[in-house]
Amino acid sequence: MAMVCLSDFEAYAKKYLPKIAWDYFAAGADDCTTRDENILAYKRIRFRPRMLRDVSVMDIRTKILGSEISFPVGIAPTGFHQLAWPDGEKSTARAARAMNTCYIASTYSTCSLEEISAAAPGGLRWFQLYIHRNRAASQQLVWRAEASGFQGLVLTVDLPYTGKRRDDVRNGFRLPPHMKVKNLEGAFEVCKMSPLDPSVTWNDIYWLRSLTRLPIIIKGILTREDAELAVRHGVQGIIVSNHGGRQLDEGPATIDALVEVVEAVRGRVEVYVDGGIRKGSDVLKALALGAKCVFIGRPALWGLAYKGEEGLQDVLRILQDEFRLSMALAGCASVSEIGQHLVQFSKL
Amino acid sequence: MAMVCLSDFEAYAKKYLPKIAWDYFAAGADDCTTRDENILAYKRIRFRPRMLRDVSVMDIRTKILGSEISFPVGIAPTGFHQLAWPDGEKSTARAARAMNTCYIASTYSTCSLEEISAAAPGGLRWFQLYIHRNRAASQQLVWRAEASGFQGLVLTVDLPYTGKRRDDVRNGFRLPPHMKVKNLEGAFEVCKMSPLDPSVTWNDIYWLRSLTRLPIIIKGILTREDAELAVRHGVQGIIVSNHGGRQLDEGPATIDALVEVVEAVRGRVEVYVDGGIRKGSDVLKALALGAKCVFIGRPALWGLAYKGEEGLQDVLRILQDEFRLSMALAGCASVSEIGQHLVQFSKL
Amino acid sequence: MAMVCLSDFEAYAKKYLPKIAWDYFAAGADDCTTRDENILAYKRIRFRPRMLRDVSVMDIRTKILGSEISFPVGIAPTGFHQLAWPDGEKSTARAARAMNTCYIASTYSTCSLEEISAAAPGGLRWFQLYIHRNRAASQQLVWRAEASGFQGLVLTVDLPYTGKRRDDVRNGFRLPPHMKVKNLEGAFEVCKMSPLDPSVTWNDIYWLRSLTRLPIIIKGILTREDAELAVRHGVQGIIVSNHGGRQLDEGPATIDALVEVVEAVRGRVEVYVDGGIRKGSDVLKALALGAKCVFIGRPALWGLAYKGEEGLQDVLRILQDEFRLSMALAGCASVSEIGQHLVQFSKL
Amino acid sequence: MAMVCLSDFEAYAKKYLPKIAWDYFAAGADDCTTRDENILAYKRIRFRPRMLRDVSVMDIRTKILGSEISFPVGIAPTGFHQLAWPDGEKSTARAARAMNTCYIASTYSTCSLEEISAAAPGGLRWFQLYIHRNRAASQQLVWRAEASGFQGLVLTVDLPYTGKRRDDVRNGFRLPPHMKVKNLEGAFEVCKMSPLDPSVTWNDIYWLRSLTRLPIIIKGILTREDAELAVRHGVQGIIVSNHGGRQLDEGPATIDALVEVVEAVRGRVEVYVDGGIRKGSDVLKALALGAKCVFIGRPALWGLAYKGEEGLQDVLRILQDEFRLSMALAGCASVSEIGQHLVQFSKL
Question: Quick one: signal sequence residues (chains A, B, C, D) (predicted)?
Fold first, then answer.
């Protein structure tokens, strides 16, 4: 079967992954409304393409926090990559480096952050973390990430408790015994996730800032009010995210929330978005609405499930080609020409 | 089969209840548009969740008419619980007490109100009544309810005549001979419902008030005009309800009507809502839009059908857990923090 | 099978009528969008029901052009009733009289207007006509209708040419040889319909007026502009109609067009509507939006197909019961209490 | 099977064409959203039909750039007609001439433009072209077209690169070896389409103008901004087109884009539209919204696939009959009476 678009990888992963792993990756909270809305919301945005602009030389590179990437698509933090491919996050890191883009490694990786770093030296990587009840544990992770060459810290703020994902409850999901959350080994049991601290507030941003000189990117913001607070608390970037629809069901689609966050931020920090990206033209829409870069979650896992590092590169390459083509067909030769004039919200 | 969410109980009840009983509980008037809209309307409401608020200590208790309940979900009045479980309303009363919430017993119970009281002494209960052509019969019921420790009277006003529920007509629905409408025994035949008085007007509220010192809650209000009249006629509470879509088809979904009723009432009396609640996040939406508490009808019956008192407790516990989790994920640690800022109406 | 609602009659007719007859009655023009929209548009209207109004004595009678009918539902003109029942329009006339309502007999009846009159003396009947190229033929029909006791003339204006009904073309629909368009016998071939004059204009209303003292009702108006012209040309009534979606596809649903016609007419003449009425509550909606009465087309044919005169009475009786119940549940005890406050247009 | 409407031809073509050819003709870019929207958007437009206007003599002729055509429907440029019928574009040319309408021959024809001309001398034809990297090749085509009697040049501007049509990629679509892109024979390989120049800008319109006295029609405009630029650069006509949804997916439906283009152009040049025309009433809608004429793409191919020249005439004749009937039923006796008052956008 030819792999022509991202749905082909999804179909492959659904067919070949063990059901419990597929269900875990696919899961959304409750009725999965928000998970599905993330995708549907892109369909309600229409392009206003411009013609007869010289698009013979296309430049799709961009920079995030000063680092150049080959195109504005990075890898969002997702857990347990060994469920998709034996080499797990090491393959992810290699694919991201090969494609010259950014990989946000999850705390809940099945490889340690040191292993991830060693697997693809020189790649652009950020480290995703939660704040634990045991602040020392978080502190250790920050220091290890900094020492291992990660260039940004992504603080996830939408998981004071884990969302209710019905299939995981039905399946009694837990990691197979031969896989470990390597970053936290010995520290605590994974499945309960009790170590995460639900009392975290905005003040903890200051504490985190005090630990590191790495830029802090806050992930999980969905409202203008929280975007304003994030800027005021000194973060360097915001990822508009609803955790792939896995936390609070029936919140906004991320592409819809992006609009209000971008408006509130007024360019003071970089804004990114994840959730629902399935085509290169989705990337173009997100950029037109003010995102500096997007991150893909499940599609990266489908790529891994298909052929590990190589499969993920296939996914990224398809997105890259589609993004470049969409840009050209919309009349933009470089990322700097993308703007809000390219899109309008459909009334339907 | 694991019971993970309320739909699991629905599927169980549909599978194991006799068809005629399932049809009776499930029935909506005419095309069942309003019955289904009650659910769909919740899906059109989107959360605006806030992050990084201390949600380590969650307080989901509330008070209705001065009585504390463990969380803002009570049992709406529905008839004929013995169709779902042999012990009928006695089990319902026990489950409500065990979960420390309010149970509104229906006039059309298959246990008498005295039996209900005796089954769960000390539980918070309101009694639902209609006004009969024979006013003495209504008067008797009010006095018996007061004497049996019921703490509120819920007057249903949307049933001057019974709605046209096609399946009940086709099935020739009537109570099996071994079940009785115990509260009315001897007084009249049940199936015709002719005893209800279609000439009742707002003035009858004064008459009802003259009979009892119990608070009067009016159930079945759907417009601002009637909400204003209810307040002026001195009721203590309003339940926004369309009788589960069993009366006038193609009226508003209750969650939509709630908005205009809350606006009209301006805090002068408590406002509740029933119809369409299927998840803890629906409760959160109703509270965000101004309801003090919600009541569940069919889901309670599904719980009874599953395992009687225990099954209903399961249903309530799931709703409670989901409500608590939704609150936390939306950034609210106590019911008092819930407000309209948490929601917006989707345009789709 | 119990006949509980109008869809039951539809299902029966679809099952038992010859396909060619069913197709002819069911046909809409082109994609049948307007035919189906007539029904869907009712679903987008929501009631705002009022409670606690004395509805113990219900009065559902109304008057059209001064004649009292038992409830505001008449029989719209449709052709070829013998396709549905051997006695054809004679049965229709008898059923309408039995239910004390108005029957608009079609020019394209399979009984002559004299036969129709003789079948149910004393019934309230209007006669529907087109203007023919041969004006004398039209004149004859008018005089015969007047002589036979018809009390109104309904001029259909939306058929300068016959709409394209694909199934009729595929079926090669034509009347079976043993049926005749009795009103026009000898005058011309039916299937081509060429006798109708596509050059008719508003001035022909004056000509028609000059022929008769009967009130003239114009059928097929869909815009405020034409409603204004109709009033200015002295008609006594307007039937908002799109010919059951059989003429121009993708025009407005009649209940939507009713709103603008009623607004334009400002009470100067009576306004009626046909198309899409399937439940008593649809009648209530039409009256709330300003119709004085509605007319049913296909449902009458289904009733005929079921049991002739008796079947049509069943259909009318069901609509009557449903209309009365809807009124009561919406808080209206008489037709005069119905008003626009009872409805709102859903945004969905 | 009777051919009653255009869908009948579509069904025939889908059944009898080789899959690879059907897929090529049917293909849309990416998710085919825009391809399908082109059709759906027509369904959201409602007529406001007027009654009692003399429609006994219908005149459906119109003029485009001064040439009279029998009705406002021409043949849009599509490639590879031999995939549908052995005689290819020669049949198309003959059918267009027989129906007295305009045929826009594609550069990517499987007959040369000289063959096309010779097949139907005297027919009204325009020639569609792209601007090639090798400007001399384009120049040659222009001169050959002018020499062969083509009366207009249609410059397609929405294909700097070919859109991603998944089925074509999966099928590895390429012309069968016995077919040739005759207009370009020897010049380059067809399947790569690399000869097209993605550096083309508005200035190239001046270059094209300098080559020929033929009117220039620009095809592929979707925004008011580009419409304004087109007028300023001196084109004689604009075809609002999204290339049948084969280029940038999720741009606007053409009938929606038509509105803004017509507004911007303010009558300074003629505006046409293609995409989604499936019924005569679609033609009427496009004209009501300001198009001077519409062009059909896929339906013409279905006609060819059915019976070559004769099949395409059938398609055109059906559209013509439907258009005439729609006009009459909407109250217009000639094209000049068609205006915006005839339509409104449905909110649904």
Answer: none
pLDDT surpasses 50 at A96: yes
Distance from CA of A267 to the nearest CA of D (A): 27
Chain B residue with CA closest to C8: the answer is B166
Chain A: closest CA distance from residue D86 (Å): 31
Chain D CB contacts of C205 below 8 Å: 52
Q: For C126-181, how does the pLDDT look when each residue is reduced to its tens digit (9 = 90+)? A: 999 999 999 999 999 999 999 999 999 999 999 999 999 999 999 999 999 999 99
What interhelical angle do B224-232 and B254-265 show, nearest 10?
A: 50
Q: How far is CA C87 from the centre of its chain?
A: 20
Selected residues 17-46 of chain A with any CB under 8 Å from a CB in chain B: 30-31, 33, 44
Q: Does A344 map to a domain?
A: no
Does the beta-carbon distance from D330 to C166 stay under 8 Å?
Answer: no
Confirm whether residue C314 is marked as ligand binding. no
**Distance between C325 CA and the closest CA of chain B, angstroms:** 7
Would you call D299 an interface residue with chain A, using a CB distance cutoff of 8 Å? no
Long-range pairs of D225-229 with CB within 8 A, sequence gap ≥ 24: D225/A50, D225/D264, D226/A50, D226/A51, D226/A52, D227/D260, D227/D261, D227/D264, D227/D265, D227/D271, D228/D264, D228/D265, D229/A52, D229/D202
CA gap C37, D83 in Å, rounded: 39
Average predicted confidence (pLDDT) for chain B: 96
Question: Given the structure tokens 């060994």, which residue do they identify?
Answer: A82
Please give the tally of structural domains in chain B.
1
pLDDT of residue A347: 67
Whether chain D lies against chain A with 3 or more Cβ pairs closer than 8 A is yes
pLDDT score recorded for residue D59: 98
In angstroms, rounded to a whole number, what is the distance separating the alpha carbons of residues D334 and D140?
41
Q: Among this protein's residues, is B243 annotated catalytic?
A: yes
ipTM given for this complex = 0.97
pLDDT tens digit string along D61-114? 999 999 999 999 999 999 999 999 999 999 999 999 999 999 999 999 999 999
State the residue range of the domain holding A317. Answer: 6-49+57-337
Q: Is the pLDDT of residue A22 over 50?
A: yes
User: Which residues, 6+ apart, have CB-to-CB distance to C150 below 8 Å?
Assistant: C105, C113, C117, C125, C126, C127, C214
B in contact with D (at least 3 C-beta pairs within 8 A) = no
Summarised one tens digit per residue, pLDDT across range B160-212 is 999 999 999 999 999 999 999 999 986 655 445 568 999 999 999 999 999 99
Q: Check A81, A178, A233, A243 and give the catalytic one.
A: A243
B320 within domain boundaries: yes
Was C35 annotated as part of a binding site? no
CATH value at residue A87: 3.20.20.70
Q: Which residues in chain C have their CB less than 8 angstroms from residue B163's CB? A: 325, 329
Lowest mean pLDDT among A10-19, D120-129, D181-190: D181-190
Q: Which of C55, C281, C348 sits opposite B198 (nearest CB)?
A: C55
Separation between Cα atoms, residue C115 and residue C85, nearest integer Å: 15
Residue in A46, A53, A321 nearest the CB of D251: A46
Per the annotation, does C33 bind a ligand? no
In a domain, A348, yes or no: no
Q: Are C326 and C285 in contact (CB under 8 A)?
A: no
Nearest chain B residue to A251 by CA: give it: B47
Q: Which residues of B touch C43 (CB under 8 A)?
A: 33, 250
**pLDDT-based confidence at A190, cuts 50/70/90?**
very low
d(CA A223, CA B280): 22
Q: What band does A1 get if pLDDT is binned at 50, 70 and 90?
A: confident
Residues of chain D in contact with residue A326, where contact means CB-CB under 8 angstroms, are: 248
Sign, CA torsion B14/B15/B19/B20: negative
SS3 call for A317:
helix
Token pair recorded at residue B276: 């369409």
